[in-house]
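Human: Not sure, check this?
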Amino acid sequence: MTTANTDTKPVTGLSQPATPAFTVSFGAGKFGYPGDPVAFNDVNDLADAIEANARVMRFPMNISAEEYARKKERGPWLMRAIDEEHALATDENGTEHWHRRKGSVTVCNFLMFDADKMPKGTYARVKKALPLTSRAMLMYKSTGYGMECKGELEAFRILIQCKPVAADIAEAVTAWMRDNLARQFDGGEWDASCDQPTRIVYLPFMGEPVDAYDGDPLDCAALFTEHGLTLVKKGRDGMTREEQDAALPAFGVFAEFAAWCLDTVNDAKIVKKPDGRVALQMPGQQPEKYSDGEDGGDGWNIYPPSGTYEMAVFHSLHTVNEPSETFGIQDAIGVLAKRYDTKEPAKLYAAALKKRVSKPKTPSVNHTPVSAANSDMTTPGPAPAGVTAPLVEFTFPPSFDWPEDLDDADAPAEDASEAEQAAYAKAREQVRIQRHQHYAARYIYIARGKEVIDRSLSPNVPPLKWDEFKTDRLPEYWIDAKSKPHLYSESWLRSKNRESVHETGFLPGAPRVYFDREDGVQKVNTFYIAPFVQTTAEDRLKDFFWLVERTHPDAKEAGLFYDWLAVTFRYPSLKIPFAHVNISPAYGSGRGRLIKIMSWLLGERNVGITTPADISEDRYHDYMFRRLVTVVEEGDEDANGKRIKIAGVWNDVITSERRMLNLKYGGKYDEHLYNNVFMALNDYSLSISNGDRRIQATTGAAADVADPGPVVWGRVDSLARDHDFRNQLASWLWRRDLSDFDFRAPDKTLPARERLLMNSGTFEEQLAREILESLPCAVVPAAYIGEIVAKFCARSENKDLNQLAVKRAVNKIAALEKVVDYSPEHKAIKCRVFDPKLKRGFADVLRSGFNEIEIARLSRKK
């Protein structure tokens, strides 16, 4: 260990009785090993060391996501210091080095937090708040901060010093703090993998400042005990080795390959997934064990062949460093061959490929979609009156089996007869013809943009550019032994059998390829909502109902939200001409989680998220482009810092059925619109008229709404990735009776709407609101309301105010807010109690000897 502080040593127990310090191991590269532990007595020294080790030059802002990942993974990083007694390993050449697998870190003296995809302004907000915590910590911008490939959002990392503590205690406290942080921000992600003691975090760009803050270290052991935390439940340990060996036959011809991985690859194991499937799970490209997430965290899952699909299915779970479109099972085998210096996995996998299909005497192409047609579903609940829009249709994409070539073993011998050789050549020619037919049936060419759609994928998966498609699919053939190889994709492009359309479209209820009568062109439909399994079970809906009741405490308004969501789900082609607006001043109200659940139900690509400022600027419209819901996230001012007035572009967003949309990176499209609007506001900041028909305002969670704690929030968070929950929610919405829901106009009787109108009212009404918010005390003698109104009118710059109208507005708003009148039995004085909780206390004051003059004096106090 490089000693800047030699007091930090692991001992047993919760807190380690040693001098607090930042103790880290530096390293570089995704496959890099950690260096010797280095201890820093002061947070500023660690900040200087990070700046000194940050050697990566700033990337171009318009760098692609793939190039960003490649460059980032070569950069320097730090982690909590490894325990030299538990982290020694030997490579295949016999060279010793430190490793960072699970168990290599036993003691932590700092916690790590990685914030990503955060809304603009979050970094400044957090930076301003950190000094107020009086904790020793540092903060710096991640390399993805503001990058276009990251949506131009913010990303940063925070390291907080703590008293040396056992690694599993630090993990539990980090998870608890991360959950609390996530509730303070609607939007963005706090990376759960940073809970793990062995996690690395990449350093900032060269020259990027690291902000350090002096203070006291956290006492994680005390927090763990005080808040009743429990150790983080580890990921599935899989089965015993005997059980894993017994599961190998499920991998079919790939069993030998799976067995080699179990015997050779560090930490490889077979696990049983919640849906009953088994999977071969490996750490992937990271030289460390998986994360402890429910899907195994970073790493690879290889599933056995299933049904008619005779290939092993490969999932790479670290989607940033191993994007699905660029990293497949062959790449994974290459990593294994390099890491273990052997060609054995490639040989075993190749042998499995040869075995997996017997002689394809009559290769076939399956063009029949597996469908969950509406005819197979129960009748939905009653529709809203007057609805003519069709019900949503659920279909699975069709499957296509690639026609297999004949095995080399089937080739005729050299002394075979001419008839045998001709038969073999004819059989191979038949395979080639069927492969051409496979391309013609499976792919659609899009003239606009020179793109290709794959029918076997979900319709909302973006098409590939021609160059990407051509290089992504490399099957080739030869006309004869002397000819150059030809690509099937290029032959398909020149074929008269190729299906072509003018452009993509988005039309709920239309077939995959349809003719747009208004535009006069053929289009391929990109609309898609995933099918669901109908069920009458509702046990997984309890936490969802709780969340809706929390964000919509009024039962009638909660019912309106359920109806709005059910219409959006069941009738996606129906445009609801008003926005569902939820107004809540509470932090951590739960609306962000409600939005995630809507995205899980409808599909993330069907939900666009924006801000009031972006709408008012009217520059880009990606949030409306081919969406079923546009979410306007918390924000109460337009781009100029003014109150939002529902007019102009706001009318277009809420009510327009067709509009020219300008996409940030995709050009312009004249589009039909199906986006229903959900607005989450913090204040009554919308300016509407009394005749407004575009806003349905509902009252959200109160400012002092109680925090239910991490257990409840954890259950709610799990819903947005729970398939059983989605099946139950979709089934419940499918059955819901919508006959009382008026989809044409908002409910104008709701209290929140009255509040909006008051805030949007005349000068007299606005002054009345100001008076009520500036009263000198909570209990005011009714006789002095007029005097207070007169004083405010006199101070106002508007000399045309009608004082009587102001007083009437005060009384009207007071009645709306349920302000009570109170007259003590033994006093001939009438008071207005603006806080009903003070009623009894004020009566006690009257009985204790206050007279009318003293009350009047009290009412004038500031």
The mean pLDDT is 80. Residues 418-442 form the longest helix (25 residues). The longest strand covers residues 154-166. The CA atoms of residues 74 and 124 lie 28 Å apart.
